[in-house]
Amino acid sequence: MDTVALLVGLGPLIGWGLFPTIASKFGGRPSNQILGTTIGTFILALIFMWVRGLAFPSGSDLLLSIVSGIGWACAQIVTFLSFRLVGSSRAMPITTAFQLLGASLWGVFYLGDWPGVTAKIWGGIALIAIIIGAYFTVWSENKTQENSSLLKKAVIWLLFGEIGYWLYSAAPQATSISGMEAFFTTSDRHVNRRDVLCCYRNSGK
């Protein structure tokens, strides 16, 4: 196993793990949270693009990067809204499970991942374990009708949000653009989409 690749993979694990906790700690409306997240991502993307000397994508690469960014922005809006319903500690296991399931099934059926019967069997077992783990994470011993209703609503929202996360990961795979080259363009779409949402929310106050 490549140790460097494993360590690089732990970076997003830590970042995505702290992200919902920090967003919930700062509070604010979903429009505030999503705009703040986007500005930070956009600034980092600008610095990263400048340091690496990357060219701005064009043509289909640009279009698919934009689709990817819009998908992520829409999905993240839904995720932030679900935080208000059931809290980040219950919403995150659900959306993470949906993302892992969606990405894995897309990889198996479209990209040809998990070649061979053995790989598919072990992969299927892992997906079942993810579902069971997510269920027990959000399970509550003292259930109320109101809490059950909110959880059900959050699950439905997050299920639709998975469509956005699927676009976010699948769109760049339809072209030859690398993740580094797509980073700035997707973050740019995050900013534009979230600016619109923030203005809309504020106008309704």
UniProtKB/TrEMBL annotation:
Keyword Membrane: yes
Compartment(s) where it occurs, according to its Swiss-Prot or TrEMBL record: Cell membrane
Record has Membrane as a keyword: yes
UniProt KW keywords: Membrane, Sugar transport, Transmembrane, Transmembrane helix, Transport
Segments passing through the bilayer: 6-23, 35-56, 62-83, 90-109, 121-138, 150-168
Primary localization class, coarse: membrane
Pfam families associated with the record: Sugar_transport (PF06800)
One GO location term (cellular component): plasma membrane
Topology in the lipid bilayer: Multi-pass membrane protein
GO function terms (MF aspect): carbohydrate transmembrane transporter activity
SUPFAM superfamilies named among the record's database cross-references: Multidrug resistance efflux transporter EmrE (SSF103481)
InterPro entries (UniProt xref): EmrE-like (IPR037185), Sugar_transport (IPR010651)
Annotated family: Belongs to the GRP transporter (TC 2.A.7.5) family.
Name of the protein described by the UniProt record: Putative ribose uptake protein
Originating organism: Tetragenococcus muriaticus 3MR10-3
